[in-house]
Amino acid sequence: MNRFGDRRVYYNNFAEHLLNRYNPNMTYPGLPNTWSDADWEGVMRMIAGFGFNVFEFWLVPRRFCREGLSNAYGDEFVRQIRVAARAARACGVKIRAGVGLVTTGSDWMSLCPNDPVDWAEARYLWDAWSRRLDCVDIWAIAPGDPGACSRNGCTAVTFIDKSLEIARLIKGNHPGAEIMLGTWGPPFFGWGIIEGPEGWRGEFVQKYQHTAWTFDAERTRECMEHLIARLDDFPKPFRVMVNMGFNPDGIPEGEMDGRPWVRRIAAKVPVESWDFSLTEGENAILPHYRFQRLYEQRRREREAGGYSGGICFTMSPLLNQLSLYQAARSFVEPDADYDRGAREFYERIWGEGAGEIVEDLVLFEIIKEWGNHVELDIGKEEFHRRMGRLHDRVAAWEGRAAGDLAIWPSAEYHRGELEFFSRWMRDLSGPAPDFASLRQEYWNRVYAIYDELPRHVDPRPENATDRIVGFFRQWRNADGPVSGKWA
Length: 487
Hints:
The strands form 2 sheets. This protein has an 8-stranded parallel beta barrel with strand order 1-2-3-6-7-8-9-10, surrounded by 5 helices. It has a two-stranded antiparallel sheet with strand order 4-5. Residues 478-487 have low confidence and may be disordered. 48% of the residues are buried. Helix 1 (37-50) crosses helix 3. Strand 6 (138-142), helix 5 (156-173) and strand 7 (178-182) form a beta-alpha-beta unit. By secondary structure, it is an alpha/beta fold. It has 16 helices and 10 strands.
């Protein structure tokens, strides 16, 4: 069976509610942040050099629909994926598409598999898209984000059985394709438990999304036993994704401990984790430094037995190159010293002494968001002083010759971003910040593309920006961390 760390997946989520300066715009041709072919080639060389061997993307609902099959933005998306696939294969990297079983369209509608008309539409879309994306090596069937079905008697068991139908359809189109089944969440995110308003037909309703995280031990036992009973029915090669814990952060506690299921499934097929928020969440776009928990989780996965790999999620690959480097390394060397690895990363780029900035990078994790378990006990004045020190150090590297570690777009681009964010957070934590001006500066730098777009059904960018600036608005105690900041 596969060894721990054999499968190392770079998962770039560029969904339309996660667009930003550092993520490829694959949805709106003509608007900012569209990657050139050279960008795709450079990023694939970078991630291969870091040690990843699979590139995963999400075929989001706005494309996984008839409109996406026929419109110009769908054509350009397919073209770019083929460019990425060629560049990846040249570096020994495979391509994996993650697709929600039945979630489709700009309104993220979840079709119902127990409705014959809906299921016929879902099968049509899987057939058409699997034929069109003939460059994909691995098809990952996901419970859906954010969609799932509880209508007409649908449960997690329905998801498993209908995913088997789709797996066979894909293999009919691509006999050499690998199939992966995602469990994600409580497990099988939302299936049989997601709720909606009266008259609900499966459309995305944000205020009901928390119901998809409802955990029930008996439901878990029933659906996982059913999955194990059906493992031999799935066409091979076949893998399953199971996190160590059935909760948003994959924490194996109490009845949410997924490790016993991992070991049972791994006795038949390879298992990967899909721990989504280890390196960054879906909110604060900042240079991240979450490596203590990253390496701790890798060691726990290794000790659990059964795991052969997992993902590194990113929605900011042109900003968080250090996180990508550490994530790939954590699979190969889970016992490594992550601070030392970060120092080596910067010294390979800018030479001796560059690693000194590592002592201050963790301060970017002052903003608590999904997956951030960093505990910082620092006063506002000390934070301000150290952010100023970080800014001055990276500003002094301007024009400094790059070393032997190739990062994309360039060493100077990365230096400039570190300089911007350290200066911005220095000013936010200063004695008299202009919060309105600093909020607009961040928005213009990171999220300006949304000025060109209608408000999305999941308004994450606006909320994230307000949360970051709001933290500093509240931070008035110079002697310690802001009261209640972890809430």
